[in-house]
Specification:
42% of the residues lie in helices and 20% in strands. The protein is α+β, with helices and mostly antiparallel strands. The strands form two sheets. Strands 3, 4, 5, 6, 7, 8, 9, 10, 11 and 12 form a ten-stranded antiparallel sheet that branches. A two-stranded antiparallel sheet has the order 1-2. α1 packs antiparallel against α3 and α3 runs parallel beside α6. The chain is elongated, with a radius of gyration of 26 Å. About 1% of the residues have low confidence.
């Protein structure tokens, strides 16, 4: 393996020779691969996109969907470039294959993937931090780089003010190790910090008490870093190994900076908001922890690789499956003290792994505007002709295979053998089976309640579905004719357009069947 950076230097009284770095072309090639993977899910974050600055909105008059996609592309670009820089850093200390694994783990196995789904500040700040780390490790061999690290550190704090604690710890650590470079460190960092203070006013959204939020962001099943990014455990193990091996300054300062950031992020006003998969607010600190992942892989190779694979799998689940369902079920409204984050049985990872629906998507244009074309699939899902509801998930049965890929979305809630649709866009998705598309069919929805039931027909090639609403009250049986030839596609969504009646009223679905119109209303059921 490559020679690890030595710890003691005292402004380098002895001659040292810096290890070789990969070329910029190699790092950019890796970044390009990461960028393509970040865009692979084809859709922006499920949450409303953060507002663009006024000058950008004026310069780029895009519709809402186009802005969301452009914002995702920009954020993903910063994340992928950060991965390329991390590769350059680690390839100085380790072999390139270990550096590649760690770079992939950083971008695809941590909250960085989720932060790259919209134009949030985390990925830009993280890219600046990775550049700063590169300059710091270069300073191990040439102290002049220590002063220059002030510029990217200042940029990180300017882009995302919550990084102030993280940056402060690193500035103090650099100043203590290279005191002669303090004037340059402050000079390079002053301008971006001044700009940040002019744009962001204290207390930078830090309004919550210290402690509870940090604990939830680290270890809760609903938001905890160790659940959504178990590879962080490998980074912490590696930091302990590096500290024991003599790299006490770099291990101590990096872990302390990451810890300071976790404390501040847990006190941010929006720390518990569930619009993204996992603890997005901790994405900025991930390079500080994953810097030590190669230490763990070199010592415990099987464990380290297992943590990388598991973390990427969890993040991929979020990228391809996460929508607003968990938020609408568990945080609408949130429980006192955000107790929903500590609900092991109904945490996001469990919920979406149990649902198994993958929301494949790609951008496109329809009627002169940008749209998101979707093709949900449920791997290994059964086919049948009838959907009933036992427990929290739908059950597909029936002798004839007319439908499949069934799942619940929005706030649709299974209870007492029914699915309750209490708000707009709560619903059930199903796809007409290929073998049943050649003949006319009928969708039969049985239930009770008050409101308006809507049945939409669409598909990947028809992102603007045709829909028909049916006012319902009391016990009802809606019969909706379906013809694949005339329809907008094979994908059917049964939703409510809004609950009627008193507060808490809605529509409860008992069963959905897809069969020939001539079939009896109550056919003999087959298991």
């Amino acid at each position: 393996m490559a020679v690890r950076a030595p710890e003691a230097d005292a402004e380098l009284p002895e001659e040292r020779f810096a290890p070789a770095e990969p070329t910029a072309i190699t790092a950019l090639a890796l970044a390009a691969v990461l960028f393509a993977l970040l865009l692979a899910n084809g859709r922006p974050a499920a949450a409303p996109a953060p507002p663009w600055p006024a000058f950008l909105r004026g310069a780029l008059p895009l519709d809402e969907t186009a802005r969301a996609l452009a914002g995702k592309a920009i954020a993903s670009l910063f994340a992928s470039l950060a991965g390329g820089v991390m590769f350059k850093i680690l390839a100085r200390r380790w072999t390139e294959d270990v550096a590649v694994i760690s770079a992939f783990a950083l971008v695809l196995g941590t909250p960085v993937w989720a932060a790259g789904q919209a134009l949030w500040p985390q990925t830009a700040a993280m890219f600046s931090l990775c550049v700063a780390l590169l300059l710091i490790v270069r300073a191990e061999y040439d102290p002049v780089w220590a002063g220059r690290a002030g510029l990217p550190l200042g940029l990180a704090a300017a882009v995302n003010p919550i990084d102030a604690a993280l940056v402060a710890v690193l500035v103090i650590a650099v100043a203590l190790r290279w005191p002669r470079r303090v004037p340059w460190l402050l000079l390079f960092g002053a301008a971006p910090v001044a700009v940040g203070l002019a744009v962001h006013a204290p207390p930078f959204g830090v309004t919550e008490p210290f402690g509870p939020g940090t604990a939830a962001l680290l270890v809760s099943p609903g938001k905890g870093l160790l659940f959504f990014s178990p590879v962080v455990l490998g980074g912490l193990i590696g930091a302990a190994l590096a500290f024991r091996s003599g790299e006490r300054w770099i291990a101590g300062s990096f872990v302390l900076a990451a810890g300071a950031h976790a404390v501040i992020a847990g006190s941010a006003s929006d720390w518990a908001v569930g619009e993204t998969w996992g603890p997005r607010l901790l994405a900025d600190a991930m390079p500080l922890v994953l810097f030590f992942l190669p230490d763990a892989i070199s010592r415990f190779r099987s464990l380290g690789q297992l943590l990388v694979v598991l973390a990427i799998a969890v993040q991929a689940l979020g990228a391809f499956a996460y929508d607003d369902r968990w938020v609408r079920l568990q945080q609408n409204p949130p429980a006192p003290g955000h107790a929903e984050l500590w609900d092991w049985e109904h945490g996001p990872v469990v919920l979406y792994a149990r649902r198994r629906a993958l929301l494949l998507a790609a951008p496109g244009r329809a009627e002169g505007r940008m749209v998101i074309r979707t093709h949900p699939i449920v791997p290994f899902a059964p086919e049948g002709s009838r959907i009933e509801f036992a427990g929290e998930e739908p059950h597909v049965g029936g002798a004839e295979a007319t439908l499949g890929n069934v799942f619940l979305f929005g706030g649709a809630r299974g209870e007492r053998g029914r699915v309750r649709l209490a708000a707009r866009e709560d619903g059930i998705f199903l796809r007409v089976a290929e073998g049943a598309r050649h003949r006319p069919l009928e969708v039969r929805v049985r239930g009770r309640g008050a409101g308006a039931l809507q049945i939409s027909e669409g598909g990947f090639w028809n992102p603007l579905p045709r829909a028909r609403s049916y006012p319902v009250t009391g016990s009802f049986l809606v019969r909706h004719p379906y013809s694949y030839v005339e329809s907008g596609g094979p994908d059917l969504r049964v939703t409510t357009t809004g609950a009627g009646g008193a507060a808490g009223a809605g529509v409860e679905i008992e069963s959905i069947a897809l069969m020939a119109a001539s079939d009896p209303i109550n056919p003999i059921r087959m298991p």
